[in-house]
Amino acid sequence: MPVAEGKNVQQTVELLTRKLEMLGAEKQGTFCVDCETYHTAASTLGSQGQAGKLMYVMHNSEYPLSCFALFENGPCLIADTNFDVLMVKLKGFFQSAKASKIETRGTRYQYCDFLVKVGTVTMGPSARGISVEVEYGPCVVANDCWNLLLEFLQSFLGSHIPGAPAVFGNRHDAVYSPADTMVQYMELFNKIRKQQQVPVSGIR
Amino acid sequence: MVTTTYHKAGSVLDHSLESLIHRLRGLCDNMEPETFLDHEMVFLLKGQQASPFVLRARRSMDRAGTPWHLRYLGQPEMGDKNRHALVRNCVDIATSENLTDFLMEMGFRMDHEFVAKGHLFRKGIMKIMVYKIFRILVPGNTESTEALSLSYLVELSVVAPAGQDMVSDDMRNFAEQLKPLVHLEKIDPKRLM
Known about the structure:
Chain A: It is found in: Nucleus. The complex is a heterodimer of chains A (204) and B (193). With 204 residues, chain A is of the alpha+beta class.
């Protein structure tokens, strides 16, 4: 469940990771989630008679053999990494929006049953925000553990806790799936893209 | 990874099926032939290009929980006319079950669909399929189908990295062993249009 915040990106990330380490969380490698945006090429639009749609193709290091393709408010397809090869074949019909690639990279922390990932969101060379993802391993139904997640988040995010993710809508009792995570990252990335560039200093 | 598919096909009348299956059981790797029941849908994306982009979506009707299979097949490779098999680029992708909804969202429209029911054999990297095609009478309803013909389609194919031309020689040698029950040939897709 990603959350964006921060004035100075680098310092805030360090603050968060230090808090986590003080709680007792253990570092467990790194993670990366990236997102590329495609839009229907003009040549296809003419004959379809519909407004151009944006399609997002995403990868998550937690699922290294998969590729996620989604439309906003539309279906999310989970495919194997050959989907990227197909997108190359489709380049006459779907074009990559210029300089649209956005990604978040950072450290994974394990704290008991919680997996926390704090990442710096970048577009090209510039850092644009921070993502925090928390996963509660034992539970697959969102409604059953939402309060627990909130309580845990409060312990290191203080007042910056988010509201219930929109991806659940009315389906609070549905079984959680990786597609739900990717939809949330897509929404976060879109929100960050629209924000003004965050003033940064000392970013390596 | 873009791979290449090598392909030869032929057909046998219904009454010759048993003899062919018997010979294939002798020649091929499996002890018991594997059967399959698949539903395939062919989608087109029309643009201003002359020819639409074709994708084939296939799902198993008898094995619950298996991923859907999306396949792109390129144009046949121009090259050695003496090559024994049809050679095309292909990209194979396993996907989640919402594939058709997703393709429609991308702008694809279904051109046609069919059900394929038959047997699958393997010999090394060669795959031999003997199956019957069924026309779907009401779009989307795979329960109500009718056989397209009184014969079974026989396909010999290999998916391999590009440029392995000895593959088509191996296929020719295998095809020889199936004569006279069935004659497998390189089918020119343009002839069928």
